[in-house]
Design brief:
Elements lengths: L12 H7 L7 H12 L3 E2 L1 H13 L4 H19 L5 E2 L1 H27 L26 H9 E7 L4 E11 L2 E6 L1 H4 L6 E5 L5 E9 L7 E6 L22 E6 L7 E15 L2 E9 L10 E4 L4 E8 L9 E5 H7 L5 H4 L14
Parallel strand pairs: 1-2
Antiparallel strand pairs: 3-4, 3-6, 4-5, 5-8, 6-7, 7-8, 9-10, 9-12, 10-11, 11-14, 12-13, 13-14
Length: 354
Amino acid sequence: MTAPEPERIRIEPEEVARAVVPLPPRPLAARQAALREAGPPRVDRLAVGALVLALIGVPLVGCLLGPIAIVCGALALSRLYGREDVRGTGIALAGLLVGAFEFVGWMGVLLWAVATPAAIRPLTAPPSMPTSNAQGLTDAPAHIRQALLANVRLTCTGGDTHLGSGVNVASGDGRTLLLTNRHVADCAQGAALRVAFHDGEVVAGRVVWLGPEGVDLAVVETRSERERPGEVMRLDARRAARVGDGVFAVGNPLGYDTTYTVGVLSAVRRLPMGSLEGRVYQVQAAINPGNSGGGLYSEDGGLIGINTWAVERTRSEGLGFAISVETLAEVLRGADASLRGLVQTSVDEERSPR
């Protein structure tokens, strides 16, 4: 007995066509197709703006533009994440980093500038300038000419070299006395004091009197065969000086010998000077390093004070001070008779009202 023949299943082509279902397109392929249709990706404007702001802030105000560039860069990175139709991630990151670095740098510079105090330099001068001798002094008006001829240059050479001015107040018998500042004449140990006159003669100087502690005055003596009685500037403690009067100063600013500058008497003040209260003139005139120890004169050419110090120009404009001849007369009470005679009125004599 033969086995039965297995049953055959017949599938028609129409049934196969109905059974085939097309698979959905893959997401990546769809995105790539969409990108090809849209064209090349554009650059994000916010990312570009962040980098431009950061670069501008480097030479300018990075303390302000830096934080703005940081914010713009961070926003650009957040909206670029996961997108392929827009590019600029690297640009946004560069803007953020540059902005951060420039902000830190600018803040460091500003904090340093605020925390560092302004340097207040004393009224000292550079080394003397041997070729700076002034010309035509005798051609100046009479009331100015006398002050110019009485001016001398004092220099401490060796060690701490510095320069200042002085005024010829007495000359005779081969001896000339010069009035100046204590800080100009009191040279450091090992330094020599040299005195240069307007005609080029240079001689040694010797300090014969220093003002008491707190009084920036001194008298220097020179010895020479050449006497200079015609160049002496007389001292008169009775001379009045009032606020608003015209004044002029003579000295050697920055080594430029016998320089004349004009201004006005801004105020008359009393300031403590050691054990006494000195009379000080505040003037608005060009007082520069090298003017220390030079004369301050009234408008008609009378010596009324000795230029002593000036406020640094980074803190003020044209603010100078001079010790009055009246105060000089007071402090000379303790000096010997020859020095007390420098002032045309004794300190006990009644002075005219100021």
